[in-house]
Every structure is written in C-alpha cells, then in structure tokens.
Amino acid sequence: MNGKTENLFSNSFKIWHRVHTYLVTIPVTARNRRVLSKDGESNFSKPLLHCRKGFSYSFMTIVEAKWRWTLFYLFLAFCADWLFFGIIYWFIALVHGDLSEDHLPQYQNATGWVPCIKNVYGFTSTFLFSIEVHTTVAYSQRAITPNCPVTILAMCLQCIVSSIFQAFMIGILFAKITRPNARVDTILFSKRAVISLRDEKLCLILRVGNVRKFKIQNVKATVILLKFINKNNNMYFVEQKELGVTMDGYESTFSLWPISVVHIIDEKSPLYDISAADLLCGHFEILAIFEGINGITGQAVQARTSYTENDLLWGHRFVPMINDINKIAYDLSKLSATHEVDTPLCSANEYDVLMTLVDFEDKISDKK
Predict the structure, then answer these.
(1) For a 10 Å CB count at each end of the chain, is N or C smaller?
(2) Prediction pTM value
C-alpha cells in the first residue's frame, strides 16, 4: 500500500469517525431496538396463547424466571398447599362440632368429647396441623383420632398430593441449577465489537473473558448476524446467517485467559458488502453465544449478548490485557478498551478490488 492510499484511508476514517460519534448519540427508537439485550435476555414479547396454558408452560416459566421470582413462587405454592388442607381440616372440625365452646380441648375431659383432631382450637390449629402432615415433622399434641374416617381420608390425600407437589418443586430447582447459565455473570463480553485490518483482511473481533476462578472446558463460540429493514419506523426481519469465527490463538479445549473471537470478512461473509457508511443508515444485529463446561461441577455454562450497529467500532483495535511482560496476568478491566487505527471505510469487497488494483499498478511500475 503506497503513501497516497494510506493518507486517503486515514483522512476518510477521521471524517467518518466524527460523523459516527455524532449520529450514535441521537436517540432513535427504531435503531435502539434489540432482539437480544446486552445481558442475554430475549426482548421478544410472549403472548400467553391458549395452547400454552398447560402445566409444561408453567413449569418452564418458573424454571426460566429469576431466582427471586422462582423462590417467591415456591413460597406461595407451599403456603397455598398448607392453607388449602388447613381449611379442609377446619371445616371437618367445624361440622363435627369440635369448635363448639363446650367441646374445646380444655373441656373435653369433663364432657368426654372425642374430637376428630386433638388439641384444635380454631383455624390456626388446623393450619399448623396441615404443615405437620406435609413436612412430616412428627405429631406433637395435635393428632387424628379414629372417630372421623373423613379426617383420615383427608390426611392420606394430603400425603399423596404433598409428595407429588414436593417432587415437582425439587425438579424445578434441579432444572434451574443445572440449566446453562444465559446471563453474563460468569462470562463477560466486551461492550463493543471492533472492525479493523488484520493480515490485510477486514475482521470483526470481540473479546470474551471469564471472571470466575474456575476454568471453562470445551468452549465454543457462535456468532449470528440478523439483518433488518426499517419502514415507517418499524423493523422488519430480513435474514439470519451464522458467521464463521475462530478463537484467536486458541487451539485447545481449555480456557485460561480472555479469548478474541475473530470473524474474517471475506467473500463468504454476509458482511462482505457492508461498509462504514452502512453502520450509519442500516440496521442489523450480531448475536454472540459462548458455551462451555464448568471444569469443577461439569455443568454447562452459556453466555449471550448482542451488538447492534451502534456497538460496532469501525477502525478500532483492542488494547493488550497483559499488565507486565514478566508476569503472566491479565487485567479484565481492559476487556473493552480499544484504540483507533487507520482502517479503510469501504466494504471488504471494495477493499479487495482496490488492493488488486494497487498491486497491479505496483507491478507495472516495477517493470518500468
């Protein structure tokens, strides 16, 4: 590349960078819409259809909910179970006459009254008895007498229902613990992705780092491009394509340090005809998915994020993360740090054509 070409690229890049910095600060509703949020959550609305009102949909809703909501649902479910059977025991005691003034526990020895459940004074007592039946903490002063078969039947029914109910609760907790983690809490993505030259090829690069001490094995990175068109301030989905990526300097299945995920923009890439100007007027989204296995627990780990055209820095390069060359250590605070580099603003297709012409002119000048 001769000096004139380098100066042309440098000057045009500076002009584009000023325009891009100004435009991305303008809040445009349509341009800020995402299919996937930065923390990996889907932004699709999920209407509750009639076919989804079954048990399986409710089960998956609780599993996919955040931990605070899952625990809250479980608390409500347990309370509802205890309350339901507590009302049944209270109704049985009320019909049997155990709650009459002269049939209360303090008068039963004098009157010789035999209740359905011993030591029941009201609804609070039957509610506590319902908890004792469910949790099988052994009966204290409250116990069933053989005079009321209905009470025995209700207790057997509660034991069966509680066992099934508790099995489902354990299944929900187990499924939630073992499912792939979809949030960026153990794996961090760089806030921006960059496009710059690498080995005379335009490349899309993003970085991934692990914030926990445990190492991740069998890692796999997937990058997907979503293209949209904007009509009347509405976004319409056009196409979805997977981008071929490599993990820079990473050939093993064991992750020790932050990884650079690189997509070479060549003739096979969907980004081959996208230039810097397309970042200002077009709309597309890049989904990044990082998967692996926790080396300690053996559980699957998954992190997701997305980059819109506002999150792409054309003509930038990530800074090194090594603090000291004499010490093998990296600084995760520099995961998203970048610096500007001279980069052509044209598409990779136009750049390849331009470089072919430059090489051809150099060959002709060498012959002369």
Answers:
(1) C
(2) 0.63
